[in-house]
Amino acid sequence: MSSKILVTGGLGFIGSHTVVALQEKGHEVVIIDNLSNSSIDVLAGITKITQKTPVFENIDLRNKNEVKEFFEKYPDIEGVIHFAASKAVGESVENPLLYYENNLSSLIYLLQELQQKESAYFIFSSSCTVYGQADELPITENAPVKKAESPYGNTKQIGEEIITDTAKINKNFKAISLRYFNPIGAHPSAEIGELPIGTPQNLIPFITQTAIGKRKELSVFGDDYPTPDGTCIRDYIHVIDLAKAHVVALERLQKNREKSNFEVFNLGTGKGSSVLEVINSFERSTGEKLPYKIVGRREGDIVAAYADTQKANKELGWKTEKHLDEALKSAWEWQKEVVKREENN
C-alpha cells in the first residue's frame, strides 16, 4: 500500500537509507531536515540510487509555526517516521537543555499536528540505551527501562512515554517505537552512508577514518571487562536491514493488525560482537591493517548489550540478512568515496 510519508531527519544516516527503502517500495516521501547534522548532498545520493528525488523541506522542528505550516502545505501526509534528534551522548551531558529542547519539543509539535488527523501512523526512532546495562542478555522488550545514563538517553525514554500517553487518548493514532542497537554500514552503491560531523561518536566511523589515515590510531576503551576478550560487546546491525524494518513497521500500522495502538520492537542481529572482534572483522573483510591501542575505560560504557529479536522476527516478519563482515566492508567503501569527494572539491 503506497502512501505519502514524512521522514524527519531524512538526510541523516539511518533516515537516508530508510528513504531509499520507502521509495523502492513505491511510497512517496517528503523529507524534513534542518541540515544541522547532515548534508544536502545526501539528496543527490538518494536520487541516484532510486532514480526518484524525494520532496525536501529545510525546516527546524523546534519552530512550532513551521511544523504547523508544513502540515497545512501537505495535508495528505499519512504517516511520520521520526529520526530528527541530536544523538551525541557526551554533548548531551555537557548541554542537556539543548537536547531536551531539540529532541522533545520537535516530537511534541509533530504529535500535536497528527492529532488533528482522522488517523495517523507514527514510527519513533528509539534506542537500546533505554535498557542501560540490562540484568539479562539477550535483551527482550520486557526488560526494565533503567534510569538513563545521559540526557540523550533520557530523551528517548521520555519520548516513548509521551507517545504512550498520546496513544492512550487517541485510538486512531497508531505508533511503533523501534529500539535500535548499533547501526553500521552503508548502501552498497557507496552513494550514502554515515557522515559524522567533527570527531565521530561511534566506533565504525572512527575505525574507517583511522584506516584511511585521517586519524592516527583507534583507542579501545578498556580490555578488562568481564567478556571473553575483555572488550565491550555490542549488537551491530547493518543499516540496510534496519531501514527495511521501518518499511515493514509502517506496513504493520497500515494493515491495522497490531494488538495495541503503541508497540515496541528491538532491532538488532541477536548476536553480540566485542570491539576486538569488530577490528578483526574489519581487517579480514577489507584487507586493511588497523592501528589501535588499549586505553582506560570510558565513563558510562556498559559491558554488553545485544538484542533478543524474537518479537520483531515473529510479529513483523523481519530479520537481519547481512553479517558483520559485509557491513564493515560497505562502511569502508563509503569512507573511500567520502575521501574521493573531498579531494575533488
What does this structure look like?
Strand 2 (28-32), helix 2 (41-50) and strand 3 (55-57) form a beta-alpha-beta unit. This protein has a domain at 4-184 and 237-268: NAD(P)-binding Rossmann-like Domain (Rossmann fold). Helices cover 41% and strands 17% of the residues. It contains 11 helices and 14 strands. The strands form 4 sheets. The protein has a 7-stranded parallel β-sheet, with helices on both faces. The protein has a 3-stranded mixed β-sheet with strand order 12-9-14. Helix 3 runs parallel beside helix 5 (96-114), helix 5 (96-114) packs parallel to helix 6 (151-169) and helix 7 (203-211) packs across helix 11. The relative contact order is 0.14. The chain is α/β, with parallel strands linked by helices and 345 residues long.
List the helices and strands and how they pair.
Elements: E1 4-8, H1 13-24, E2 28-32, H2 41-50, E3 55-57, H3 64-73, E4 79-82, H4 89-94, H5 96-114, E5 120-127, H6 151-169, E6 173-180, E7 182-184, H7 203-211, E8 218-221, E9 233-234, E10 236-238, H8 239-255, E11 262-267, E12 273-274, H9 275-286, E13 292-295, E14 304-305, H10 310-316, H11 324-344
Parallel strand pairs: 1-2, 1-4, 2-3, 4-5, 5-6, 6-11, 7-10, 8-13, 9-14
Antiparallel strand pairs: 9-12
